[in-house]
Hints:
The structure holds two protein chains of two kinds.
Chain A: H1 13-16, E1 26-31, E2 36-41, H2 46-57, E3 68-70, E4 74-80, E5 83-88, H3 91-100, E6 106-110, E7 115-121, H4 125-130, E8 147-152, E9 155-161, E10 166-172, H5 173-186, E11 192-195
Parallel strand pairs in A: 1-11
Antiparallel strand pairs in A: 1-7, 2-5, 2-6, 3-4, 4-5, 7-10, 8-9, 9-10
Helix pairs in contact in A: 2-3
Chain B: E1 13-22, E2 25-31, H1 35-41, E3 48-49, E4 56-57, E5 70-73, E6 80-84, E7 94-97, H2 124-128, H3 136-147, E8 162-174, H4 178-188, E9 194-197, E10 213-214, E11 217-218, H5 219-232, E12 236-239, E13 242-248, E14 252-258, E15 273-285, E16 289-291, E17 304-306, H6 307-315, E18 324-329, H7 335-343, E19 347-353, H8 360-369, E20 373-375, E21 377-383, E22 390-395, E23 408-411, E24 414-418, E25 421-423, H9 426-430, E26 436-438, E27 443-445, E28 453-455, H10 465-482, E29 495-496, E30 520-522, E31 527-528, H11 529-537, H12 543-550, H13 563-573, H14 578-581, H15 595-599, H16 616-621, E32 624-629, E33 632-638, H17 645-658, E34 661-664, E35 669-674, H18 678-685, E36 698-704, E37 710-720, E38 723-728, H19 733-747, E39 754-757, E40 762-768, H20 772-779, E41 795-800, E42 803-808, E43 817-823, H21 827-838, E44 844-845, H22 848-858, H23 896-899, E45 904-911, E46 922-924, E47 937-945, E48 950-958, H24 960-963, E49 967-972, E50 977-984, H25 994-997
Amino acid sequence: MADPRSPLADIPLAALQTNWSEAIGVTVNVTLKRCMFQVQAWPDTIETVAQSLSSALGIDVAFNQRTVLANDDVEVVTVGPGRVLVSGGDNAAFAAVGEAVAPDIGAVTDLSHARIRLDLTGSDSAFILSKGLNLDFDHERMPDGTVHASGIHGVPIIMVRRTRELFTLYVPRTFAAAIAEWIGEAAQDVGVAFRN
Amino acid sequence: MSSYRLPNGGLVDRSAPLSFTFDGARYSGFEGDTLASALMANGVRLVGRSFKYHRPRGMLSAGPEEPSALVTLRTGARREPNTKATMVPLYDGLVATSQNRWPSLEFDIMAANQLAGPLLSAGFYYKTFMGPTAKAWMAYEHFIRQAAGLGRATHEPDPDRYDKANVHCDVLVVGGGAAGLAAASAAASSGARVIVADENARLGGSLLTEAGRVNGQSAVAFAEQHIAALATEPGVTLMPRTAVYGYYDSNVLGAVEQIADHLPVPPTGLPRQRHWTITAGRVVLATGAIERPIVFPGNDTPGVMLAESARTYVIRYGVRPAARAVLFATHDAAYRVARDAARAGVEMAAIVDPRPAPGEGAKALADEAGIPVMAGHGVMKALGGKALNTVVVAPMDLGTGAVTGPESAIAADGLFVSGGWTPTVHLASQAGGAPVWDGKIAAFVPGAPRQAWTDAGACAGTFALSACLADGARLGALSADTLGFAAKPPPDYAVEDDLTSQSIAFVRKVKPTGRAPKAFVDLQHDVTASDVALAHREGFQSVEHLKRYTTLGMAADQGKTSNVTGLALMAEARRQDISHVGTTRFRPPYTPVSLGALAGFETGHHFYPKRRSPMDLWHRENGGDMTPVGLWDRPRAYLQDGETMTEAYVREAAAVRAGVGLVDVSTLGKIDVQGPDAATFLDRVYANGFAKLPVGKARYGLMLREDGLLFDDGTTWRLSETQYLMTTTTANAGPVMAHLEYHLDIVWPEMRVALASVTDQWAAVAIAGPQAREVLWMAIDDIDFSNDALPFMGVRQGTLDGETVWVARLSFSGELAYEVYIGAHFGLHMWQRLLEAGQPFGIIPYGLEALGTLRIEKGHVAGGELDGRTTADDLGLGRMASTKKAYIGGHMTGRPGLADDRRFQLVGVKALDDQPVRAGSHIVVEAELTEPAESLGHVTAYTYSPAVNAHIGLALVENGRARIGERHFATYPLKGHHVPVELVDPCFFDPDGERMHG
């Protein structure tokens, strides 16, 4: 059997870490998701697909909000009109969704290898992200659960705010090492640690 | 301590002495000094030489408007030229040097330029260096460039880091003076998020030198209390040392924070500067005003300085700017300078005021201080060379500046000048209408806003402290309210104003009789009043022409002290009011911005994000000579010991033809196309048909632009009735995705099609060569690789060590070949597994060069031929385009320009004398090339072919297919290559395709 390999295994993560002031402003946790896929509904089937996903995943899915919905195992991130990113679960979840979302109501695309999840946590996580994202990180204006599809250094990312100091980035796999290097550089002044 | 440092007073910390050097001499100062104030405290008056005439220059001001006291800071890689000594916070160990002088500041040989003054007037380059030949300028330019400029930048790489960040706020207050602080407090009272940005190291602005009192306390104490209160407000961010330099659309402003410029070396990890992109709901421009000089002969002599700046040196820095001084002012408030200077021990010889009489308050103030007032007089000359020693005064006409009586001389080493105030309208001008002339204050004030800003305090032409505070508080509250907040009523500031000016007399230029030194308008660029007059005489009368002809208002100070007087002189010459002459448009940056700050940390290794194939590290660790391909790095070849690149790729290409090779093609663009209308969609975007492609088959597709030219090519695989996997070229992956999304979203929104980029999902390899099938048999399960079960262009799903793979029998090389796709996390595993399985067959990894060799041998097209100018027919692919369906670009393929028989067509080229043919060579008929010849076309790709045993290439040649068999020359004049070639069929190898179908 083959073992999955993280794209961050190709770069010396330890060398990106800094804590010159003996403080770590941001910690980056890297996750290879077991299963991730995108579901796209047709303009006139959004409600139907939402219902199908809800029954298949056990989450009350709604497409009309840029927020994250989750249960213990799976989360659904709304990333565009009639489009969600489903992550977590296992291949059974993918199969279940594939069954539930027939081609006449939508499309399911496997992205399990296409995105890497980076979780940034720490008192300076918003500050570091503000170096690449022109978003208003004020907690009142960007409350927990907010989703943004944007770009860091020209790389398309999906960002989810989970708490005041915890953010998730879904990063294209081929850019994951570059984004990790970017974070390492951006966080030079506050200290950064990586957990692979 | 020198006699220029006052025994007490000032806002410097006398318990923190600092040591620094200027031109190698060691001096001392205090924490809180600027380099300028410390130099002045040490009696240093001469700090630089002027741009053109190398005239001695001192400090004109105490702030960002400084045109003269430009120095080079630091040494080595951190050397930074043209910094304003007035804005450099002093630090221990600071090293500063003067610039634009040789061999020394005291004795500068280039000062001889002053003797050639008449020759060096505006436009002298263009008038002087015209001949004798048209190319003569090339010779002159070298010497002119050598002589031009001020400081010299280092040639070493900058060792410091620069940072960048974005920040959002409700109200941005630009300027931390009286109006700015009041605005910030009022806005913050509403709960709005407020940022106060000020370019100075210390907030407070004029409050730090203000003699008026607020709420019963000194202005300084009021400022400190106010700042401390703001600092505790949770929604307030105070940003001193942060210059807001640009105002852009959507209320976005650019600012640079100097984080470590006040330190010798930035502490580890800290950037030297941070660029902020500020997005604000509303902006309060409380940028203050700049004191205006007066144009008179010798007004650049060291010792002549702006009056309020002289006062700043006294009150803020505890420095006496002169021993004996004259005040030359056109309004009442400037009399405060004489009063405060006298209190500091400066012997004020006279107040020279061109008005018939000063205001009562001013007169009383002068009388109280015992300073004689010479009303109706002007300063005719300032004399002294390297240090002022004489001020020549005379009665003058206020309206014309002309002398009306006898001159008299006053001995003085200081001349404090105030011609009024110029509101700092730069940001307002960037984001608003043209500045408007206000005759009462003799100044331009901001025009109508085009964005969400208001101007407050001196920026709006309001100069009294009480008015500035009230204005700021009102507009800060209004800004917050406009955004939906509810500001508390601003507090009543109980202000005891110091002397203020009710009106300001405007003196364009003093006109003495007889010989006189030059009278400067723009001290930084050595533009004189005569230059402005010359520009007028020669027809450069528009303010935009005036600026460019004379360079008035250019360079590091952007005309902060020169624009208004320059415009006034032009207005006078044109016999118009200055309001009719107008101003030039201010553009960013308001103050110089380092390139490092603009670049931020995305430099060097971080210049652009690198995309990495799952096998990237393997390539690097196994001899891959990597080359950038878009954002990717790809191996050109895997070099073995001692091999040249050519030897390596020839070895690899030959090995593929003889056995089997493996190449990483993960970089190809991959797009998942799904939906009930996917087939119809593809039929519309490809020139050839896809609707009838069976499931389990792939097809090579041609994609055209709307204008009928080729856009991209690639194979698309039908995975199910409703799902296709489209591949694109590496270079065009992004544009093709955008092209498809545009048509789906805008042109055919009714189609039920979903697009998703899956380039990152799949690791991909191509395995090619006669033994490729045997290797796949060894490594991949669940697929029958026999020719019948998996024919050419067949697509099957299987497993590799339990993981799903897609295999398509495709060939770019012309060999029996397959592309194998696996989930990217297993890409490296697949690569290694296939190499392992291929060992018995001598498998080798091969790179881009061998890939290119194989495709050139087959005449397959790639980026060199798909250059955005070719059609399908040009490349011999015209028959692929469907005549039975409509597709993007189809209607345009028959237009005359694309059906011309003189179009360039794809042919092969074969070298006739065993020489390489450079890609880019032109095809010409001339055997000897001494002059430019007519080009029949150009070589698009070249290789040495081990299969053909010749140097071969592809070329686009005019009516090329009809020329096959002709012999011409491939010429590359830049390298002196001129190679005889034969035009041949583009397919050099296995024209019947027996190998790839076998």
